Amino acid sequence: MAKIPKSPKIPLPGSERTVLSGARCIGAAAPSEQIEVTIVMRCNADQELCDIVDKQSASAPAGSHAAHLSREEFARRFSATAQDIARVATFAHDHGLEVVRENPACSSVTLSGSVAQFNQAFDVDLQRYESHLGNYRGRTGVVNIPAELQDIVTAVIGLDDRPQAHAHFRLQPPFRYAAHKVSTSLLPTQLASLYDFPDNLGKGQCIGIIELGGGYQAADLQTYFSKLGIAPPNVTAVAVNGPGNQPSGDPNGADGEVVLDIEIIGALAPEAHIVVYFSTNTDAGFFNALNNAVHDNVNKPSVISISWGSAEPRWTQQAMQAFNTALQAAAAMGVTVCVASGDSGSGDGVASGNHVDFPASSPYALACGGTRLLVAGNAIGSEVVWNDGTQGGAGGGGVSAVFALPAWQQNLVLADSNGKSQPLLKRGVPDVAGNADPVTGYQVYIDGSDAVVGGTSAVAPLWAALFSRINTAKGSAVGFVNPKLYQQQAAFHDVTQGNNGYYAAAPGWDACTGMGSPDGKKLASVL
Fold it and tell me: Could you read off the pLDDT of 434-464 as tens digits, one per residue?
């Protein structure tokens, strides 16, 4: 009997992986190990989608409102086609892989099978590695796909399950509430007053939070909000990949991130519904969590807060492009996505050079940088760039090596620490800023103990809560705000002192604090 000829395979552009720095190969991944892998496909009519978002952002005058697509309308117009999904399913079937989830609106299909089956399907050689971040299953080189899928498949993620992102928070040693008078730390509610948030509590809004591990305990939230004299917010946990809400009891681990996000948002927008999307800390887990939040037709978040990320060089190009498309979909549907810009200054934790954090560097994300805020009476006494040095952390910011200069950042200037300046030529990060120095940080309650926390992880939920209040005041979602914000310098506290390593603060936008920290009521009035 004649053999069926094998379809020729070609490398998938942008799928190259290298070994994690410092990791050591300890042998082949077990051939029988069962894994799930997400295939990302082209979205239907993607040029039309680009045009919609461009129209929303094209020199949009403040206060103007381009129509956002409903989630139903987005799914109807831009879902992956049935034919594309069928071709991916046929490929899977031919290699003994099972289709476990089809998500047409997200243009993704999730497959399950054994390591041996995936090795054969994608011409990869999955190995096990030991690393300082924990053991992981990994690959090197490219992923290969059949030539007939080259115009359909844009990313294959999840073969490699290395930890993809870091939580951008810094925990101060525990303190006692009795010590408030000697502490420079602040309650989130004090920040709402200092930044002059609009006079509502986010009623009618849903805020999504992306978490890649850890969890929260209802008793901790009850204790914290009763100390604040605030009714606890309505919090819903959604398990995307992995076990869902699983507190470890370690405030220095992922629990610290989960709880600070909920407590900051809950203190600043207690009448909003908070939905926490839990997933695994891999590129596929992160991507699926984001897509679940963006396309959630039940809870319908109008704002999403993300406090996880890593330097652009640590991502594959295919994964960044898949994320960017998901964030573009959020923009089309009027969802504001606030992302921490990182806690390791202009180098972003990479051994050499200046780098920005992703997904903050996506042009469809609102990148949130860090300041050190000191209070004088009931007002802001001073606000400078957060920079506590290499050990203490500093706000992330700089220039993307991946994303082009957005129209709304044209004609901006980069100032460096040597007093020189040059034109901004690619996507600049961050867009905005807020209090992030752990010394002037946020008082929270994690795993049964009072704590003070800082980092740009605290700034993303701060801005998310502000937008939920603005949405409540406006009666509709402001959506993709970046283009409008850049026309409203007067609605910010301009931060002009300090540096984050290579870059320096300067009047107007800079690569340390973006446009500055918020003047909430002014922002509400111009949006």
Answer: 999 998 999 999 999 999 999 999 999 999 9
Residue type, 406: P
Determine the Cα–Cα distance for residues 337 and 366; give it in Å rounded to an integer: 6
d(CA 163, CA 455): 20
In the chain, the percentage of residues whose pLDDT exceeds 90 is 88
| pLDDT averaged over every residue in the chain | 93
DSSP codes joined into one string, 251-305: TTTHHHHHHHHHHHHHHH-TTSEEEEEE--SSHHHHHHHHHHHHT-TTT--SEEE
Give the active site residue among 305, 341, 361, 457. 457
Is 21 an active-site residue?
no
- Cα–Cα distance, 35 to 89 (Å, whole number): 17
**Local confidence band at 46 (pLDDT 50, 70, 90 cut-offs):** confident
Rounded-to-integer distance, Cα 136 and Cα 485, Å: 41
Q: Would you state the torsion angle of the CA atoms of residues 207, 208, 209, 211, taken in this order, to the nearest 10 degrees?
A: 160
Amino acid at the residue 514:
G
Whole-angstrom distance, CA of residue 27 vs CA of residue 204 = 53
pLDDT at 178: 37
Instruction: Compute the average pLDDT of residues 22-39.
Output: 98
* Helix ranges restricted to H, 23-179: 46-57, 71-78, 82-94, 115-122
Map residue 340 onto helix, strand or coil.
strand
Nearest to 363 by CA among 332, 307, 398, 409: 409
According to the model, what pLDDT value does residue 50 have? 85
Torsion (CA) 288, 290, 291, 294 in degrees, nearest 10: 160
CA–CA gap between residue 70 and residue 324 (Å, rounded): 19
pLDDT digits (tens, 9 = 90+) for 190-231: 999 999 999 999 999 999 999 999 999 999 999 999 999 999
Given the residues 261, 357, 431, 510, select the one marked as catalytic. Answer: 261
Read off the pLDDT of residues 361-381 as tens digits, 9 standing for 90 and up: 999 999 999 999 999 999 999
Tokens of 410: 């044209």
Work out the average pLDDT over 397-409. 97
CA dihedral of 127, 131, 134, 140, whole degrees rounded to 10: -30
Is 130 annotated as catalytic?
no
Q: Is 226 left (phi over 0), alpha (psi -120 to 50) or beta?
A: alpha
Catalytic residue flag (residue 257): yes
Count of CB atoms situated within 10 Å of the CB of 414: 20
Could you say which of 84, 161, 196, 257 is catalytic? 257
Rg (CA), the chain: 22
